[in-house]
């Protein structure tokens, strides 16, 4: 059974991609801590980040760092947060999100999927793609 992330990667479920290559993807989460909250996910379906091969792990962090560098300029925040949680979907992923304080790291504060504003989600994805130089599918332009 494919994970929900594999289904997003394969186009079976829609996703707002901001980065895509043969090893990793980055897309907006449907339940963000704030608008601009991105998940960096390996294309290969591996449950625990500690089981990823070193090459993939390095690449995921390179993508996360690129996204993290874009977040402050796109969302007028001092930092990008970085979390590995990994219990909600059995597919390794890194959370990268706009943050102004440690209070922003509280997953009890997520915006539920049915309460996110699609226009704000689309605008956040567009800002990040512009900063990263990627197209609407997240591929480098």
Automatic annotation (TrEMBL):
InterPro entries: Histidine_triad_HIT, HIT-like, HIT-like_sf
Protein's name in the database: HIT family protein
Domain of life: Bacteria
Residue span(s) of domain HIT: 4-107
Motif stretch (Histidine triad motif): 91-95
Active-site residues per Swiss-Prot or TrEMBL entry: 93 (tele-amp-histidine intermediate)
Record-level Gene Ontology MF annotations: catalytic activity
SUPFAM superfamilies (alphabetical): HIT-like
